[in-house]
Design goal:
The chain is built from eleven helices and eight strands. The chain is α+β, with helices and mostly antiparallel strands.
């Protein structure tokens, strides 16, 4: 989830606990603990690869959270001068756990067993910025400011509302997964994995993925839509205003029985691809990516460039982030590599 929603969720959890021994310091503790795991954003000041490698790593570890809770409870006792260590602890611990759980709901991947196990877990239920989810947090929190006598119960009601919304998203995710599996059965190929990932603006919109031995398939579905989406004309595609963006985005999502699946070959038969796959940078990229494919292989002016992309982040005509490239000379020596657009990595 986005850091603002995490921070506000921390405040709501603290108010739901409402320990009178620490008073308003409990809300301060909730706000601070709600944000703390995302303090690893400073890693992005170095370079993108370093950030991708360690974001949602040790600050999001369920194994380390009890230790963080002890440390911050001690600090809060010192700062607030209220000698109620365990009152702070019973706020810090659930807020930090809630942060990790909310991140697990998204598709990015969270290393909850760091530093012993670096697998990225994701439940694929909620888009990283979900306005409905944030609203269930924000509006009760706003109301509680003016209705202070009912703070505890308003906050607990907000928690119940979030739980119900997550369950609702789980049902929609199950529907999208079933559609994906139905398409996969018709491929007559060996299926490695299927997935459905949440999309912005609506819990009824999903991006479906099928990985086979040789290809990755991607399709977009709107579970509420009955009629096929209208294609955006070329003129509107060239515009950069918000209305054009939303029209292009809306045109991607088709009714359940009319989903169009685009496919990519996972690998291209090229010696430069083989060389690129052997580099440490691309090995890291394949660790981070969920549906990696070779985007392109180009040779020009005695330079040979291989680009990789993660189909998980690809939105046709709108977004293609996290593209990793390796460039060789004729002898096979790496001339430059890194994420496209990362000035700290890219060598021109």
């Amino acid at each position: 989830m986005d850091s603002l929603t995490h921070t506000l969720t921390g405040a709501v959890v603290a108010r739901a606990i409402d320990d009178e021994k620490v008073g308003n310091w409990g809300t301060i503790a909730g706000l601070a603990m709600g944000f703390f795991p995302d303090s690893d954003f400073v890693l992005g000041l170095f370079n993108r690869q370093f950030y991708l490698e360690y974001h949602r790593d040790f600050t999001h570890s369920l194994l380390l959270i009890p230790l963080y809770s002890l440390l911050f409870s001690w600090l809060l006792v010192k700062i607030s001068r209220r000698n109620h260590f365990w009152s702070y602890y019973k706020i810090c611990l659930p807020v930090l756990v809630s942060h990790v759980i909310l991140d697990l709901l998204t598709s990015y991947g969270t290393m909850i067993f760091s530093p012993f196990f670096e697998h990225r877990f994701s439940w694929d239920l909620i888009f990283i910025i979900d306005l409905i989810f944030s609203g269930i947090i924000f509006f009760p929190l706003l109301v509680s400011i003016f209705w202070k006598r009912k703070v505890k119960w308003i906050s607990r009601g907000s928690m119940i509302g979030l739980t119900l919304y997550i369950l609702f998203c789980w049902v929609q995710h199950h529907r999208a997964i079933e559609l994906t599996k139905a398409f996969a059965q018709n491929l007559n190929e060996d299926i490695i994995q299927v997935a459905s990932m949440p999309q912005p603006l609506s819990p009824f919109r999903w991006a479906n993925y099928i990985e086979t031995k040789d290809e990755i398939y991607q399709g977009f579905v709107d579970l509420l839509r009955k009629e096929p989406a209208l294609l955006v004309d070329k003129q509107s595609k060239s515009r950069s205003d918000f209305s054009s963006f939303f029209r292009r985005l809306d045109s991607l999502y088709q009714p359940p029985g009319m989903v169009y699946y685009q496919s990519w070959k996972k690998l291209i038969n090229s010696p430069w691809v083989e060389k690129a796959l052997a580099t440490e940078g691309v090995k890291f990229y394949y660790w981070f990516a969920r549906f990696p494919v070779v985007k392109s292989v180009n040779s020009r002016d005695r330079k040979h460039r291989v680009e990789f992309m993660d189909v998980r982040f690809f939105v046709p005509g709108i977004r293609m982030p996290f593209i990793y490239y390796v460039e060789f000379d004729d002898s096979g020596k790496v001339q430059s590599e890194g994420f496209v657009g990362d000035r700290k990595k890219e060598v021109k």
